[in-house]
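Q: I'm writing up a methods section and want to include an example of the input and output format. Could you take the sequence below and give the corresponding predicted structure tokens, formatted cleanly so I can copy it straight into the document?
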Amino acid sequence: MALKIGIVGLPNVGKSTLFNALTKTRSADAQNYPFCTIDPNVGIVEVPDHRLPQLSRAANSEKIIPATIEFVDIAGIVKGASEGEGLGNKFLSHIRECDAIGHVIRIFDDPNITHVHGEINPQSDREVIESELILADLQTLEKRYAKAISDSKSGDKEKKVYADLLGRVVAALESGVLASQMDLDGEERLALRDLHLLTSKPHIYIINVPESELSLVDKAKFAAQLGIENHDIIIPICAKLEEEIGELDDEEAAEYLRELEIADTGLSSLIQSAYKTLGLATYFTSGVKETRAWTIKKDFLAPQAAGVIHTDFEKGFIKAEVVNWEDFVNAGGDSKAKEKGLLRLEGKDYPVKDGDVIHFKFSS
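A: Here is the clean output for your methods example:
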């Protein structure tokens, strides 16, 4: 499964600069005026994983294929976007295809880069964007809710339950509560999935700070400033610094980060937060032909994990040969891990763990 993150924010907050840095491209225009991003820019980024080269060496693989994330940079959203202001609904629709929303919020102050509202106010910026997402979802729900109410009058219990669910969602949105913040069970969220509500998507807040403040960032402080309880979804990034790092090779970039006393790149921090927020894990397949990372939900059982490779693997699943990645590396590959009794057979009820190296057996 490919992870897809929509990069959103007000105009001139550094979205396109960040997108260029994350994807190591210059495809997104980053000029000092609103709506310089006309069409959504899409970039594919490899997920850094220190385990891949170690697995590849142990298996003597010909190539490595990392997991990937797709970033989508859309036009700056302004107040009234849900009603067509700025570039309006056309670009809000692109977020509906994403798994999560990376909301870029500007902290830096630069007189040469205008702020669309004339002042740096992070909480206000957050509220403007989220209000537009709420209004767009209310428009999406308007016809569906009216139909659900009509259908519920037939006496069908399921239709009544569905109408009540939509009514609760509408009431929550009208009171300013995002769908993702509602107390809904798994079945209820599944019933809402086909609506692709913007406010149901997990949010990650990307705080664009000056380079001088990056190593001193207090995430809890920023969370409080934005009115957010969970500071784990606050990712401080200096977009300009990320752009500079993106022009260096891996060794130069690592040295540069050490000089600045920064633990990791903003890209790595963003990916880690996205995986944690979305409940994702990584398992591997490793052999002579290739070593490859596969992204799954943490609750996936072995057949579902096999289905990420190919649907036939899930349909014809028989068993899985599983070994922990460190055991695989320390043993020196698949056959030696088997000789040492480190490889085990698992069935359909096995919950795949992050770091598993798996070979699936299936019937065609």
